Amino acid sequence: xxxxxxxxxxxxxxxxxxxxxxxxxxxxxxxxxxxxxxxxxxxxxxxxxxxxxxxxxxxxxxxxxxxxxxxxxxxxxxxxxxxxxxxxxxxxxxxxxxxxxxxxxxxxxxxxxxxxxxxxxxxxxxxxxxxxxxxxxxxxxxxxxxxxxxxxxxxxxx
Length: 158
Prior knowledge:
- By secondary structure, the chain is of the alpha+beta class.
- It has three helices and nine strands; from the N terminus they run βββααββαββββ.
């Protein structure tokens, strides 16, 4: 459940969130001590789509990920300008996300047939080592036809 994304820190120890324990050496970002496991995908249609989105991103199929959105969908991220429509969404996924080439692990899902929230950990290199950090919590809202009507990506600091 998404409510378990942030849990309490043990006294004097590492904080544990969905995906595992955080490295206390990084106080300005949510860096995992170990590679987090993939969360099981709930049966709802929206979370099934979110899992397909993760697979497309990891495969480098950024236009495929953009194709999950309706022609007049909206994409909102607090740190970037809002996007409206497939042309802007296609450009964002091919240029911005394609330029980043993220490798993500879905560490938590919660949702149903219409909405899904998924917490994503992204692979990065820190101090010469491959690590994962909690990158965002994405909220997908689907239309009746199964296309994404809107998505809000709540990005985390890195």
